[in-house]
Amino acid sequence: MITGSLVALVTPMQPDGSIDWPALKSLVEWHIAEGTHAIVAVGTTGESATLDVAEHCSVIRSVVETASGRIPVIAGTGANSTREAIELTQAAKDAGADACLLVTPYYNKPTQEGLYRHYRAIAEAVNTPQILYNVPGRTGVDMTNATVARLAGTPNIVGIKDATGNLERGKELIALVGSRMAVYSGDDATAWELILLGARGNISVTANVAPKLMSAICEAALDGNADLARQLNERLTGLHQNLFIESNPIPVKWALQQMGRIPSGIRLPLTWLSEDSQPIVRAALQQAGLV
């Protein structure tokens, strides 16, 4: 089972929007050196919505090849088309990814029965570990705990990323399915608390800029050391909040550019961080001791 800090890795780009392959490999090496426990490649933070299929698969292959078995690689393969999600999941398996992360279908707003059948179809079609991903604030659809419980125990479905940020709901989810699948936080601000309640780790945006500290927070929480986890997390409270001051991954890509890790590229319809927001994100980086 994959545990700890799982970075939802950005996809570095040049100002013209082309993928910066050397920068991508450099980020992977940095995360391994800093103690990140696993990498999520081409999740929604990796701008999966604006990468074409060839680019999507190439990024997964590059991350897998660079990591070279040193830490697990989870590939983002979700789509609002079940057929496309199956194709991406198969491609990720063929590329050597250790698992896949599948966001709920966005915009078309399936029913709970539709969500159940969507994930069952993918699990039955591709024999590889799969992690469900519920982020209703971005997709427009909310997969209920009851639907997750229906899917728990399905061969190949090994976990869920819960990005609701609702600790009571997360506690209920862990009680319902925690013995049958891993529950991961998808909300940086509350991740350490959910881990103390039984979650297995955090699929994190903040880890992009603070990998060592986020890994330490997750490790402390997994060890049951609430005081240490709380103290470490206090350094990141500004980042947890302000990396979402504009739509993710706009702020985190700007922060990484300021840290000299990536160039200033992002794809439309997302735009570079506004001048009004830049001092706020800079202050959060300073609070965390990163600049």
From TrEMBL:
Pfam families: DHDPS. Pathway: Amino-acid biosynthesis; L-lysine biosynthesis via DAP pathway; (S)-tetrahydrodipicolinate from L-aspartate: step 3/4. It catalyses: L-aspartate 4-semialdehyde + pyruvate = (2S,4S)-4-hydroxy-2,3,4,5-tetrahydrodipicolinate + H2O + H(+). Keywords: Amino-acid biosynthesis, Cytoplasm, Diaminopimelate biosynthesis, Lyase, Lysine biosynthesis, Schiff base. One of its GO terms (biological process) is diaminopimelate biosynthetic process. The active site is at 133 (proton donor/acceptor), 161 (schiff-base intermediate with substrate). Its main location: cytoplasm. InterPro entries: Aldolase_TIM, DapA, DapA-like, Schiff_base-form_aldolases_AS, Schiff_base-form_aldolases_CS. It comes from the Bacteria. GO terms for molecular function: 4-hydroxy-tetrahydrodipicolinate synthase activity. The record marks 44, 107 as: Part of a proton relay during catalysis. One of its GO terms (cellular component) is cytosol. Its EC number is 4.3.3.7. NCBIfam families: dapA. Belongs to the DapA family. Homotetramer; dimer of dimers. Catalyzes the condensation of (S)-aspartate-beta-semialdehyde [(S)-ASA] and pyruvate to 4-hydroxy-tetrahydrodipicolinate (HTPA). This is 4-hydroxy-tetrahydrodipicolinate synthase. The lineage of its organism: Bacteria, Pseudomonadati, Pseudomonadota, Gammaproteobacteria, Moraxellales. The gene is dapA.
